[in-house]
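Fill-in record for Tyr recombinase domain-containing protein.
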Amino acid sequence: MEAKWKDEIWNQQAFDVEPERSFMELMLNYLTETAAVKRSHDTDVNRTRNLHGFFGKDFVLNNLSKSHVSEYINSRRDDGVSDKTINKELSLLSTAIKHAQENWEWNLSNPISGKRLEELEGPYRFLSREEAKALIVEAGEGLPVGNGHLPKYLKDFIILGLHTGCRSGELLGLEWNRVDLQNSRIRLEAKHTKSKKARTVPLNRNAREVLLNRKREQARQSMDTPYVFAHTNPRWFGQRIGE
């Protein structure tokens, strides 16, 4: 592949001709190069499948335009996909293009750069007591998902979220030095919250037991981490879990 690109660069410089770059060529090489350094690799693969469903493997990225981006947005909306998800999918494609520009000397335009849909929140639907119980039971069973299983921490994560009302990002970034078990509370500083306002969250008996369980589990695994919820996969062991 490297030899092929060197030949293409020489031809481009000699004849001022930019080779055609396909969607599949870009994404396969980007995913391969970043697999060892991105914790979101599996998520990137899933988002690539969604992008591929629209563009197809042979789409020539040299021709990518704003109209293609708009058509993709409309297509995904027609499928009932949220603007937040669409933003993440297009962000992946934009990042891959930028990677190719900076590392492979591909002369591609990037009409996605700077384009972001407004992510409207709500309307919210609250889980019933029965739905919450069923969700906790299913999370605790470690059911198979794709090529793996539901993470073992998921049950604790769900219970803590239900009993504190914290957002997923607030819990995923929660550090032990902001957990006060003695006074049964956790501290969220402005930089940790979506509203950019600090707040203290009280812990009831169920929430406190979850945190104690996380401490016991991390001690059992000899995990030295500042985070309440951390990766158990050997590749990212002890690191923060991304959203």
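KEY FINDING: The CA atoms of residues 159 and 191 lie 24 Å apart.
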